[in-house]
Amino acid sequence: MSTSALFILDLKGNVVVSRNYRGDVDMACIEKFMPLLVEKEDEGTASPVIYFNGISYTYIKHMNLYLVSVSKKNLNVVLVLSYLYKLVEVFCEYFKDLEEESVRDNFVIIYELFDEMMDFGYPQTTEGKILQEYITQQGHRLEAAPRPPMAVTNAVSWRSEGIRYRKNEVFLDVIESVNMMANAQGTVLRSEIVGSIRMRVVLSGMPELRLGLNDKVIFQQAAATGPRRGAAGRGVELEDVKFHQCVRLSRFEAERTISFIPPDGEFELMSYRLTTQVKPLIWVEAVVEKHTHSRVEYMVKAKSQFKRQSIANHVEVVIPVPSDASSPKFKTSVGSVKYAPELNAFVWTIRSFPGGREYLMRAHFSLPSIMSEEIEGKPPIHVKFEIPYYTTSGLQVRYLKIIEKSGYQALPWVRYVTQNGDYQLRMN
Amino acid sequence: MKLRFIPQEEQPKYQNRMQAAASASKSAVVGIKPRDALAGPRKAVAAVEKANVCITAKDHLQKKFDQVKAKVDDIESMEKKVESGELQPMPNQVKKMARKQEYLDKRSVSCNITPRAMTDSKYFTTTKKGEIFELKNELNSDKKEKKREAVKKVIASMTVGKDVSALFPDVVNCMQTDNVELKKLVYLYLMNYAKSQPDLAIMAVNTFVKDCEDPNPLIRALADEDPYVRKTAAVCVAKLHDMNPTLVEEQGFVELLNDLLSDANPMVVANAVAALTEINESRPLIEVNSQMVNKLLTALNECTEWGQVFILDALAGYKPRDEREAQNICERISPRLAHANAAVVLSTVKVLMKLVEMLPNDSDFITQLTKKLAPPMVTLLSAEPEIQYVALRNINLIVQKRPDILKQEMKVFFVKYNDPIYVKMEKLDIMIRLAQQNNIAQVLSELKEYATEVDVDFVRKSVRAIGRCAIKVEQSSERCVATLLELIQTKVNYVVQEAVVDIFRKYPNRYESIISALCENLDTLDEPEARASMIWIIGEYAERIDNADELLESFVEGFHDENTQVQLQLLTAVVKLFLKRPTDTQQLVQRVLSLATQDSDNPDLRDRGQAFEMRTEFPFLRNWPAGKSSTFFVARPLVTSIEESSKYIYWRLLSADPAAAKQVVLAEKPLISEETDLLEPSLLDQLVCHIGSLASVYHKPPSAFIDAARAPLRTGVAPGTNGVSQVENQATAATNGRSAAQSTVIPSQDQMIAELLSLDLNAPAVGAPSVAPTYNSAVPGLDDLLGLGDTSTTTAAASQPSFDPLASLGLGAPAAAPPAAVGGLADIFGSSGLGSVVGSSGYVPPKQIWLDASRAKAMQAMSGFAVQFNKNSFGLVPAEPINAPTPLLPGQTANYSLACDATGPVQKMEPLTNLQEKLLKVSSVIVMVYSEIIENKFI
């Protein structure tokens, strides 16, 4: 269940950096990786795990790099994939962005991180904040050499001791992304909310936090009945909740309280998911009249279906057009429309879209008289939006208690926003 | 003041990446979306004018350096050209070349004064000759700064694959420093070369020993009471065990590891668990007992996410004593389902799935638990695509094992336009598994949508899925057929015909009305699979299609342009047509047969011809019951392996005995089972124990893809896993040397074709479990598949003096064998069958023949097995000795595979296909098994 070796490859499959953890795999096997991947892609059978000649290659792609783990054993793939993503995250914290150039620029520190984050194929400390305290780029004299902070091996492995701030504050952001899929007939196939509570913690010492939500996480009912707003919107039933590792899960299971010692700085405290029966927040209908060989016309109607007091900002409706369409003409009373040939689509932008409104726009494109041979898919309409001070699920933060032994007062700040997630409406 | 002049103090200060990162993260405001926060520090103002303008001292130096380098390169290339006579240098060029040394000097100067701020990438660019020598000098320099730069260069060279092992002593010398960074660099180097230079590595040991007394744990651990050291030491034991297991056992390290499980520090516990699990996998030294489980469960709450995975994976190997304990463990680990890390979630699912097996199925606890399992799995589908993929492969297992868990969640598996193709394919699989009457309408409308997408493979699979739905949910078959028809009319017809074939087979005489619609769209068939299927339909329903002969004729026109599958199908279809309407199709059939046998180079095609001929040769076929014709197909795989054997027997079948041919060719169609490609139950149980691992992605037991010698032997709690190891062995035999074909709900193209081709010849016997027949090695199963007689047939056959192919099918007791030997045989091998296994709808193991001796009645251990073939028509001989583990105890089963090749002496046998084979047991009694590779090999 452990990785034998890790490689970072460039787009051509050349090794940029590698680390052999177990020595049971011939490091030359990585030369096979790129040809294999290309072959599988040609066959249409590419998958994130490739098996060849006794070796399993598990990989992810990030920017212009491949991160590949090889093993001869029956390893825990999910662990490896999660670890690779974690690696990317840590590298990004160190070098801002992870790409070929930054890897070459920082190979010494990458070797060190490879070493510190994994031992004999087993992931170790992977908290970027903690690693940055003792795996550093600059040379250090012995007198001042950083010791691994206690946190590396503590039960609280994500926070160091002795953090001091003059002003103690906590910022909470409740961000809900709406994933929606509707078919061309206007039926909503799927509609779910993926929420996330992000925090920025500016607190001294080892504070103990307790977060109260208006949740009604009752698993027994969730599966059977689906989510529902409680009476007078008092409670929200979350279908599935995921917590940052700082949250005491057993305590949550027993008492439903979210208690934790937070890491310093920004992190995602929890995420949750619930299926909604709520009307899609923004509904788009497009009537397409296609006159083959001459022109195609669109009539697009966008409707906001949330309460009138709220306003959606930065609404973008992306409507796909045939790749050979040309000479666009648009007409709309609200917002602006732009043709985006690189997306094979036009984008209708509405700065501010209050609830309960309906807007219209028309588009006209010319089509060439000779049709292209290529068959085109039917990409869906995408909608982007952001509704501040609003959660679709009705989730609210009731309280955030902060207790630290020095007894300072700390201010919690909360914001809510609903935005689009994977929001697709299929077209005819 | 000049326009665009930027005063020095206003120019942004150069920051290295770390500083920039630090200052940028401070300015980030909470609530800003992460992607905004990543925008980074603002670029220098000057950079607005010109992208790569020099701002810092470093930039200027670099620029100068690059300029000089360009000049030197230029001169060098000119020199080369002059040398080769390619270039007559102009006076100014000569002048330029003369200044080379000057540039070279400049370059080395600018190299030396390179400021430290320069990034590490520069170490990758030096490729001068004599580099090693230069590095050696630098390594021995007095200046620490220079030393460190040199070590960095060494490591850069190492990274790009250059051999810098010659510098070993010099680098090791650098180790004696108080500079941590330099020390770490040296360790990096050491780790790479210590193995290749063991003698020199000892030099480093002294320094290591000295380091051990260092007060800084970081330094000590690189070589107690600090947990950092203990957690590193724990993993170290696993490392040591990997290299020298006996040392670990003798020194009692394993017990020490066991003690570490009670360590106060959770990180130490996690690593100790990981190490113990690994050691236990290769050799069980410490049993996981309930006391240990308690320790682990306690540590679970405090570990890092990775530690939790190690612990959960270790728990998966534990078998609780009773229900109560199982339930207790379930309760204590189920909170982990709410962990943000997907690995923790899936490992929890694994343990829960295993433990649930121990609990009574109808208890409230189970109902609650299964309800808890669905939401986290659905959430995994919002993870990164790679993780989604693994989750889907696992959900595929879970849906087979416990369909209840996800039966309400059909919608989450609907395919999104922007899903990666591998995710789309897996979702489709699961959709079909979950399809039921109450959701079939939704599923069908989705599938129809997918059939208009661009990706050909995905479209094919979607269309096939429609066919599967028709078969799985009978009530929906009408709607499925209508959908398929619509697809044909909208010219989406990659494989529509294929799906139709399935439906025809499942519901004979129900939907044939659409044949006319199919025939109308013949001209748009581009895909070979679709053409083959269509030809099958025409042949099958020749009597209902008035112009069947014309249609087939139009295909025959381009016979040689078709691929083999289509040709084979065409051949069969024409023969069918002939048998149904012999009067007016004589010419056509003759034409096809001559095309196939005389003009074709393809052995398969000619072999197909033989099939017909053989039936004329063997009179038994006249009385052959219609359903028993499957034998003809059984040995197809073998045919391809012995291509030389091709003989033109085709003609005679039709000319000599059309009646027999009719019976065989027009035999009843096998039924199609509703659920195809379900994993064999014991394999499924085993895979459920490996949730989240590679095995669960490949849908294969670990032994099938990892080094068998080191395979972990994990037995499942689940009932019915007794046969696991046996299954594993067989699976290994079956999969060895073959690329890992993934099992999917929808048969792959090859399988489909094989199925199609076998259709006309296969018999209802195939109705027997179509689930992965490879795993089913029991003799009765084989007999069923082969359409063989049982033992009684065999005995009867054996007593017949004349050659009878029917008997030879059953087991080897041909006339050639002395009766006495047969008697002796019968004692030891109650019944032995020899034949090749054929998967009717699962898969066809290529070139495999099973010699099954499972009913041996030996009372004592047997050893020294050997196999010998008599001379035969094909020169078939074993390619290797049989490597049976000896001795074989009574009641024990073992499977070996034996490669054969066709390089032996050839002797024409009568009949051609007769082959004798002896299985020799050499130690005490010599037992001979005369077996025939039955005539049925040849179709």
From TrEMBL, chain A:
Per the record, GO CC terms? Answer: clathrin adaptor complex; clathrin-coated vesicle membrane; Golgi apparatus; organelle subcompartment
Q: What keywords does the record list, in alphabetical order?
A: Cytoplasmic vesicle, Golgi apparatus, Membrane, Phosphoprotein, Protein transport, Transport
In terms of Gene3D superfamilies, this protein maps to:
3.30.450.60, Mu homology domain, subdomain B
Q: Origin, by domain of life?
A: Eukaryota
Alphabetized CDD domains for the sequence: AP1_Mu_N
Protein transport among the record's keywords?
A: yes
Its record classes its membrane topology as:
Peripheral membrane protein
Q: Which SUPFAM superfamilies does the record associate with it?
A: Second domain of Mu2 adaptin subunit (ap50) of ap2 adaptor, SNARE-like
Q: What does this protein do?
A: Subunit of clathrin-associated adaptor protein complex 1 that plays a role in protein sorting in the trans-Golgi network (TGN) and endosomes. The AP complexes mediate the recruitment of clathrin to membranes and the recognition of sorting signals within the cytosolic tails of transmembrane cargo molecules.
Question: What is this protein's record name?
Answer: MHD domain-containing protein
- State the organism named in the record: Caenorhabditis auriculariae
TrEMBL record, chain B:
**Location in the cell:** Endomembrane system
Q: Which InterPro entries match?
A: AP_beta, ARM-like, ARM-type_fold, Clathrin/coatomer_adapt-like_N, Clathrin_app_Ig-like_sf, Clathrin_b-adaptin_app_Ig-like
The chain positions of domain Clathrin/coatomer adaptor adaptin-like N-terminal read: 220-609
Its Gene Ontology biological processes? intracellular protein transport; vesicle-mediated transport
Q: How does it sit in the membrane?
A: Peripheral membrane protein
Chief place where the protein resides: membrane
Gene Ontology cellular component list? endomembrane system; membrane coat
Keywords recorded for this protein, A-Z: Membrane, Protein transport, Transport
- The superkingdom of the source organism is Eukaryota
Q: Which Pfam families match?
A: Adaptin_N (PF01602)
Q: Which protein family is it in?
A: Belongs to the adaptor complexes large subunit family.
Protein name (Swiss-Prot/TrEMBL): Clathrin/coatomer adaptor adaptin-like N-terminal domain-containing protein
Q: What species does this protein belong to? A: Caenorhabditis auriculariae
